[in-house]
Amino acid sequence: MVKPGRSVDLRSIDPGSTGGYRDKEAACEKLDRDIEKLRDVQDVFIAAGRYALLVIFQGMDTAGKDGAIKHVMSGINPQGVQVNSFKEPSAEELRHDYLWRCVKMMPERGRVGIFNRSYYEDVLVTRVHRDLLGKMLPKSRSEQSKFWRYRYDDINAYERYLRRNGTHVLKFFLHVSSDEQRRRLLARLKDRTKQWKFSLSDVQQRAYWKQYRAAYDAMLSATSTTVAPWYVIPADHKWFTRVAVADILVDTLKSLRLSYPPLPTALKRQLRSLRTDLERS
User: In terms of pTM, does the model score above 0.90?
Assistant: First the structure.
């Protein structure tokens, strides 16, 4: 977890770490157990209907966002989950403020909302490719510095607002190395079943690796807060990424200390009577 107020340098974090796991088999066994736990705590989460949970995944292309969502969420009730992927904004979305397209997709109480990329793209892609901001970006360097700081402040304020109104925010940055990304891109090109996922921009963006890393460093440092912390997950080993995400997700839902809603006394009596009638029939 990125401690609030602490400066982040991703170069000091090993993307190949496996968190103490010596082999894939042990991690996969832990993942299976956590998926079972997730199924149980999600059932109570839905029934209680007290909170919503927003889970944000960010990371470079091929970092494993899709795979983490697919595997970690494989055992839970799909009626209680909604997944949204945010790619290049549409013309309509560009006519609104940058939070708009994500705000309208927020989960309701009792549901888990998953964002594959999010409003954080607007302090990442737009910071690396500033021409995308058009006339919005000030010309002077001093004003540009304020521009990004204001965006961080707005995001922090929005996530604080969400928390105060019952939505917990959980944020994962999947930290993949440049070498591993290269291997995964090559695998996509060689595998017919993965070629549909390949995009020319994935390779083009590799030329901006250092700029993206700097943008992520700044974003993680500025927007990891007590109400919505960032977790940097080593992503060179997909099996470790998934077990780490599942573990944190289970702990987060358990920490809410929810329980099934109590039944009114009259309804309890009615249910006992119905049960007796069924047992006698």
Answer: yes
Q: Please name the residue that has the structure tokens 């494993």.
A: 64
- DSSP H/E element including 12: none
Output the 3-class SS for 114-137.
EEECCHHHHHCHHHHCHHHHHHHC
Q: Is 179 exposed, middle or buried (0-12, 13-18, 19+ CB in 10 A)?
A: exposed
pLDDT of residue 135: 81
Rounded to whole angstroms, how far apart are CA atoms 79 and 39?
12
Cβ atoms 45, 53 nearer than 8 A = yes
| Grouped pLDDT means (10 residues each) for the chain, 281 residues | 96 96 93 96 96 98 96 91 94 94 97 98 96 87 90 98 98 98 92 81 90 98 98 98 97 96 90 92 83
Q: Are the CB atoms for 56 and 171 separated by under 8 Å?
A: yes
| Local structure of residue 236 (DSSP, 8 states) | S
First-last CA distance in the chain: 57
